[in-house]
Amino acid sequence: MHLFFLSEGFGINTNVLETNILNLAVVIGVLVVFGGDVISSILTSRRDRIVQSVESAEKKYLEAQEALEKANMNLDEAKQKAASIRAQGDSTVQQVVDLVARLAAEELARLEEVKNSTFALAEQKATKQVQQQLVSLALTKAYTKLETLLKSPKAQKAYVSQAILALRAK
Asked: Sign of the CA dihedral 48, 54, 57, 62?
C-alpha cells in the first residue's frame, strides 16, 4: 500500500526494509555528528576502568601468590617443628619408660632381699625359740630327775660317788 502525494512530493513508504535502512542511516549519522565525542569519551572511560580493574586484579593475584608462598613456607616450618616436637616427645617417653623399668627392677630386687632377710630372721628366731624350749625342757627334766634322785639317801650317796669318780677320771 503506497500512498504518495504526488502533487506535494511527500508520501508514506510501507516497505519495511527500505524504511529501516533509511532510519538506521539517519540515527547513525546523527550519533556520529553529535555524539561522536561523547561516545568516544564514554568508551575511553570504560576502557580505562577495565584496564584499572585488570591491573588491580593482577596486583591482587600477585599479592595472593606471595601470601600463598609465605603460608606454604610457614606450613613447612610448622611441619618441621611438629616432627621435632614429636621426636622429642618419643625420646622423652622412651627415657621415662626406661627409668620406670629400671626403678621397678631395683625395687623388685630390694623387695626380694627384704623377703629373704625376713625369712632368715624368722628362721633364726624360730630356731632360737626351739633351742630355748629344748633347753628349758631338758633343764626341767634334769631338775625333776635330780629331785627324784636326791629324795632318797641311797640315791644321793650313789650320785655323789659317781660324781667323785667322774672328777677323778678327768
From this structure: negative
This model's pTM is above 0.70: no
Query: Distance between CA atoms of 150 and 144, rounded to whole angstroms?
Result: 10
Following CA atoms 56, 57, 58, 62 in sequence, which dihedral angle do they give, to the nearest 10 degrees? 100
Q: Give the contacts of 14 (CB within 8 A, at least 6 positions apart).
A: 1, 2, 3
What amino acid is encoded at 4 in this protein? F
Phi-psi region of 9 (alpha: psi -120 to 50; beta: other; left: phi over 0): left
Quote the CA–CA distance of 110 and 168 in Å, as a whole number. Answer: 59
CB distance 3 to 11 below 8 Å:
yes
Report pLDDT digits (tens) over 17-43.
677 887 888 888 887 777 777 778 888
Element (H, E) at 9: none
